[in-house]
């Protein structure tokens, strides 16, 4: 038995030392694992506000455009996280939309972009870990990411994003020790590519991580007495060569969407709709004038209340959010929390910097926000697993009177991790209620030939988190157009614009949605 275990461990270590192959296999395992579950899980259905906005971005880029002209009836199409003026576009950074566009354009399915980028994320995290820790532990970390996040996590099974920012963070963090050791330009290019990915996926959190990584890198180069000329030619110059065109492309995108090269769509959207800043340090602002009650309820009521509660108990909210992040990244095994925070002697600078960067990043990016979801912290996921692996790597040396307590504990933790993954496989895939109801409405409408306009009316029981009014990038060219009811006078103009379509009235008030033919003479014009 012992000989068989030694042979298995030796084969594992030999494979792990083939670093590029190990990273490739880790990424492919994530793709293959989710593909094997496709008959049961299928293609994810969007249900959240953000997902529809990202899908709009993907549809826009797949159409060969950076943005879309404002529609003449744009007031009827206002919705969450989407700009209608000065152009019609998603408010979010471009990279997730580009991934969805790739899937839509080349495979006819936007989710393929999510699937591919999640595989890239898993491989990139394995590569990052190889720069900080031995190949065997790095491979173990990559496999843990696959089984916890890569196959069953919502980064793979929705359109919210997370994988691209995590991959960008992994490239930045993986390049730091390699630059410090070798001072090669190719690693500086990888460092800059990772920063560019963060800038176009999670700009705020990406900035914090890039700043921390840059400080760590500068400190290591200074401590190792690396000459200024070497730093300038092999580090700074490649980074600038990559980031200058990235910044130029971002400025052009901003100009096309908002009319101002320095004004991001996200900022412009908040100026038009947000009644409170998501950053707790910003004071109150005057609520804008809303044309629709559901937008006012979300931005001026629900979000203001959320941010107000966060301001009243910053410390309590901070630790509650850390608990939520821990649950997403590591699951329900509290013993792993000990491994994350246990103050082992941080003998190497890698361990010291890992612990420091994790702590500073979480304080700077979690505490100041009115709300946090796991994909907000995606840039740091590789570093979180590195911290866990640093603690794991200490366990084999822990003995009690010659009894290998550390090895037994480590084996137990890994078995528990696999058991957690196995339990996750038993949970059936669930379609969001909104997606299910929306699909039923679409099926009913499509039974009538031709193009359609669905006018949406919300009743008092409607939840602001269940939004129906989202459209394709080319609104007039879509077979089904979703619009908000705004009253007889405003609706008359809308119906005249779409006079050649079948018109429906959809009433949503907390129960089952009710779809009927739109009343009135204008709706009968064909």
Describe the protein in words:
The protein is mainly alpha-helical and 526 residues long. It has helices at residues 2-17, 19-36, 38-41, 49-62, 94-107, 111-132, 135-150, 163-182, 185-199, 203-223, 228-258, 265-273, 293-312, 314-330, 335-341, 349-366, 381-394, 405-426, 433-446, 488-497; strands spanning 68-69, 82-83, 87-90, 452-458, 480-484, 502-508, 514-517. The strands form two sheets. A four-stranded mixed β-sheet has the order 5-4-6-7. Strands 1-3-2 form a three-stranded antiparallel β-sheet. Helix 8 runs parallel beside helix 10 (203-223). The longest helix has 31 residues, at 228-258. The N and C termini lie far apart (79 Å).
How are the SSEs ordered, and which strands pair?
Elements: H1 2-17, H2 19-36, H3 38-41, H4 49-62, E1 68-69, E2 82-83, E3 87-90, H5 94-107, H6 111-132, H7 135-150, H8 163-182, H9 185-199, H10 203-223, H11 228-258, H12 265-273, H13 293-312, H14 314-330, H15 335-341, H16 349-366, H17 381-394, H18 405-426, H19 433-446, E4 452-458, E5 480-484, H20 488-497, E6 502-508, E7 514-517
Parallel strand pairs: 4-5, 4-6
Antiparallel strand pairs: 1-3, 2-3, 6-7
């Amino acid at each position: 038995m012992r000989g068989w275990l030694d042979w298995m461990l030796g084969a594992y270590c030999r494979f792990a030392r083939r670093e590029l192959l190990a990273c490739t296999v880790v990424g492919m395992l994530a793709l293959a694992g989710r593909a094997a579950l496709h008959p049961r899980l299928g293609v994810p259905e969007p249900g959240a506000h953000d997902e529809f906005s990202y899908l709009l971005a993907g549809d826009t880029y797949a159409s060969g455009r950076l943005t879309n002209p404002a529609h003449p009836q744009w007031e009827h199409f206002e919705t969450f996280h989407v700009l209608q003026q000065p152009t019609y576009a998603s408010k979010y950074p471009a990279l997730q939309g580009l991934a969805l566009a790739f899937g839509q354009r080349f495979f006819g399915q936007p989710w393929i972009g999510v699937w591919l980028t999640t595989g890239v994320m898993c491989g990139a995290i394995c590569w990052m870990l190889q720069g900080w820790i031995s190949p065997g532990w790095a491979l173990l970390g990559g496999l843990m990411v696959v089984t916890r996040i890569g196959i069953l996590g919502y980064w793979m099974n929705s359109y919210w994003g997370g994988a691209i920012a995590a991959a960008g963070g992994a490239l930045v963090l993986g390049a730091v020790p390699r630059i410090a050791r070798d001072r090669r330009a190719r690693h500086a290019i990888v460092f800059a590519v990772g920063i560019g990915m963060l800038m176009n996926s999670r700009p705020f959190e990406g900035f914090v991580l890039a700043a921390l990584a840059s400080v760590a890198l500068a400190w290591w180069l200074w401590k190792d007495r690396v000459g200024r000329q070497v730093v300038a030619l092999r580090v700074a110059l490649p980074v600038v060569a990559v980031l200058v065109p990235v910044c130029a492309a971002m400025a052009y995108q901003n100009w096309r969407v908002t009319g101002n090269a320095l004004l991001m769509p996200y900022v412009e959207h908040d100026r038009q709709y947000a009644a409170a800043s998501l950053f707790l340090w910003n004071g109150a602002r005057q609520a804008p004038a809303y044309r629709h009650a559901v937008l006012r309820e979300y931005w001026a009521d629900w979000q203001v209340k959320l941010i107000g509660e966060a301001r009243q108990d910053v410390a309590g909210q901070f630790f509650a959010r850390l608990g939520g992040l821990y649950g997403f990244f590591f699951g329900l095994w509290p013993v792993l929390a000990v491994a994350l925070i246990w103050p082992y002697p941080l003998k190497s600078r890698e361990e010291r910097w890992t612990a420091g960067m994790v702590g500073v990043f979480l304080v700077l990016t979690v505490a100041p926000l009115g709300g946090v979801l796991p994909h907000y912290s995606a840039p740091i996921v590789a570093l979180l697993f590195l911290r866990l692996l640093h603690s794991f790597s200490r366990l084999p040396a822990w003995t009690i009177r010659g009894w290998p307590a550390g090895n037994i504990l480590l084996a137990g933790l890994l078995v528990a991790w696999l058991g957690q993954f196995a339990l996750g496989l038993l949970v059936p895939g669930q379609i969001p209620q909104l997606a299910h109801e929306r699909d039923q409405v679409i099926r009913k409408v499509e039974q009538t030939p031709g193009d359609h306009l669905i006018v949406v009316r919300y009743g008092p029981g409607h939840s602001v988190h269940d939004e129906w009014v989202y459209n394709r990038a080319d609104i007039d060219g879509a077979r089904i157009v979703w619009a908000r009811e705004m009253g007889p006078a405003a609706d008359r103009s809308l119906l005249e614009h779409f006079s050649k379509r079948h018109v429906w009235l959809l009433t949503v008030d907390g129960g089952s949605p009710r779809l009927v033919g739109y009343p009135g003479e204008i709706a009968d014009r064909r």
